Records
---
Amino acid sequence: MFAAVTACAMFWAPAAFADPDELRFRLGSDVTYDDNVSRAQKDDKFHDTFATLNLGARLPWQLWATSRLVLNANIGGEKFNTYSGLDRLYANIEGEFQYRKSGQFSEPIWGVFVRVGEDWYDSTLRDGFRNSAGLTFRKPVTDRIFLFTAVAYNQRDGRSAVFDTEEVSVRANVDYALSRRQTLYFGVEGRDGDFVSTARPTLAYFDIAEAAVLDDVFTDTARLSYRFKGYTGIAMIGYNIALGEHAALDLAYRIAYARPHEQPPSAVTTDTINYLDNQATLSILVRF
């Protein structure tokens, strides 16, 4: 799909151009504490700290006076302190067609995007491809407030059927500029589709799981990864401060709650199956 969009743009817009001077790179280095890397509950909950290094490139390609194609690509890796099976390398490429009716400050930007990527884990079960497509909306509300929303369909094709997931997501972010160098941001996201939880073999989980497999990361005892159909809600708050013209420090907190559409019958268990996850991330961002 991405190749087709690019080819059509080249054919129908001979005046279009991509200026190499507009090519921008971004390097990010993060440290994250996650209190539930197994995405489970009670005694099946495990915490860990991981480091991330990410290199991205962005190139806007002007098509017409009111539209452009923005190409994004990034590669990176994550290294976990304890559960090394979650270590991964990844690569993504994205194309987004953006339209803005005029150059007026308050005029919104509408977008259509397609993203493809691949993950390589130390866990062979989790290796696979990721695909995403959707619509975006960006609008400066005031000179201090910027709004971003997106609706997307996300699909993952893992080595194991448990990690073959798909979902529909809706998210919104608001940036508030405290000053020229400081920004406070908030985000919410809702997902409806598949999610995976890793826990010990339990009849209650088997009763409602779409698929299950013996996990190869959490191996202190026999644990299974289960795929459920359900809802996930995510909320985020963050603070960004510029360290100069091309660098910034970022601190973010995220909380996620997931619950299957169905719960096991009371004859099996009276407990509710769900999970709660908290993350705190400190990042250094460099643009060049």
---
Amino acid sequence: MTEKTKHTSYKSASTAAYIFIAPAVIAIFIFFFIPVISAFVMSFTDFDIYAFASFDTVRFIGFKNYLRLIEDPLFWQSLKNTCYYVILATPLSITVSLGAALLLNSKLVKFKGIFRLSYFIPYITTLVAVAIVWRFIYHPKFGILNYFLGLIGINTIDWLGDPNWAMPAIVLMSVWKSFGYSMIIFIAGLQNIPEDLYEAASIEGANEWQKFKSITIPMLAPTTLFISIITIVSFFQLFAEPYIMTQGGPLNKTLTIVGYMYQEGFRWWNMGYAAALSFVLFFIILIVTIVQFKIQKNPMTEK
């Protein structure tokens, strides 16, 4: 084959590749990049409900939306609530997921497939249906949770009506719904750990805790990093659970950044301000993700 023929063949293959990926690239550009760029531009305007009637009413106001956030008590309240939720729910979700994965990966449990399916079903169940069911579970008078607490002498708790208990109640429900996905990934990570390492540790006299600390945790480092990142990113976007269960109450104790963004954008039609909120959330998630990479970076992950 001559150089000219090779060049022609390579050019034809490249053209075919571009043709095949073009529909996907065009769709991503239309439905992702254009909306993101539009929202970013919108965050520097006073775009509101009147702009739908005439774009002439839209004014470029620079960084006023972002400066307004600094003086907005509801923004700080929603940011505090979101961070509280992430800090409380993330380690709890990862711990429960890892514990379930270790249990289902062991040789002590039979019918592993049934248990894996049972734990994974909540993750794929419609969130609205799950939230409505948990509202009944948390009901202060007829809820099953308070019924069992009453059997051991604990007074009735208004889970969703008490400002001190509303967010922990949402955390509990969210962890129950989402841990199945992380559990499946942890199981895949555990199955990739060579059994020879555990056998060698047993020969050296290591107990189960020493094996877990010295083999399982280091070998699961890349998996744990991936799960922690997707969990934090997902939890920072908390919206549906408090929206359905508490509407952001009581006393705005379950109002999240996304919930506040929804209120400003689709209840009060302050679209420019809502867009500014969305990009502040984006930069918060970006910074947290970068910090995670820096903290958890080690030779194992670099490989």
